[in-house]
């Protein structure tokens, strides 16, 4: 019985069977649902029902985390990963009410890690032509949303409760977007030394990264087109010849005009 259970864990987490891919899609859907839950509950008073749901989510995350630890070959390297500690922080935020719900924004990092796993990315390429043709743009859009959401969550976690301007995720998102786009209306500001330092961090690091991700989103640096001679998949957007073998490539981009 124990051997069968262990074999099932290795299959759904490490193999490329249909059942494993269905499980990863289900896990991705669960991650996205918990993100919506974290945002939605920031607008309402936390009732006992919400706290019980927090506990349920925390237990499910703990089970997923324990399974990952079990099937991992190199556990020392696994625990050196930033995504692993993001999982631990998310578990604490859901299971222990004393930790507060603010750390729940780290939940989105699990979705980012899941999307970047080889098995799921490969399956998305096989299942969806739209994803295969626009992979770089889609991944850039996901990275941009993750960055905005994590920055918003950090502001919400540090400011909610003592800054009257930050009452929910919408207020924190509004401040984040106006800061990242350098609009800066000034109607919402972060108070105190910590708030000012956080604002400086968002402006100094955030604006550069935000612009870089936005640039990739609207003008990808590479396009996916298979060279008929050597099979190279990624080319410059304006390429007329394959950099690997020199063959002429006919990419349907602005490079043709």
Automatic annotation (TrEMBL):
Q: What is its main location?
A: membrane
Protein name per UniProt: Potassium voltage-gated channel subfamily KQT
What are the protein's UniProt keywords? Ion channel, Ion transport, Membrane, Potassium, Potassium channel, Potassium transport, Transmembrane, Transmembrane helix, Transport, Voltage-gated channel
Q: Name one GO cellular component term.
A: voltage-gated potassium channel complex
In terms of SUPFAM superfamilies, this protein maps to: Voltage-gated potassium channels
Q: Where in the sequence is the signal peptide annotated?
A: none
Q: Which Gene3D superfamilies match?
A: 1.10.287.70, Voltage-gated potassium channels. Chain C
